[in-house]
Amino acid sequence: MNLNGSVIGISVIVFLLGYLIGLYEGRWKHKGEANRLRQECETIRHERQQALESLASLREECEQLRSRPAPALSLHTEGQEIRLSLDGEALTPSSLTDAQHRRLLALLKALTPYVTRKPAATSKAPQRPTPPPAAAPQPA
Q1: Is the Cβ–Cβ distance between 119 and 113 less than 8 Å?
Q2: Which of 61, 89, 107, 125 has a Cα at 20 to 30 A from 75?
Q3: How far apart are CA 64 and CA 61, in angstroms?
Q4: pLDDT tens-digit profile of 82-125?
């Protein structure tokens, strides 16, 4: 079999034409999928941006809460149990240090006027002056 230049040239042209048609068909066939992937990518970027913004606002709130001083004494009830926190640290009677004990006593001493009530002073109602006894009628 004799291969001359025109047969080789036509074969190359047919091969290239088939290749180009295949490329076009592949792009056309997957164009919808590429658009869908592009939309998903944009949605993910948008959600990521919103998450970053909410994270930034949460960090600001956290910093504001951290900048507030912890209450000196706070009570928390959990069911029937009362939890006590002193200067932001949870206390238990067995783990109370001497310094914490002194601080707790000082706070309780300062709270005493708020807890104890003085008996209400009984105000005496002003008494009416008693009229002088009426003079007895004199016999005539």
Answers
A1: no
A2: 61
A3: 5
A4: 788 877 778 888 888 888 888 888 888 888 888 887 766 666 65
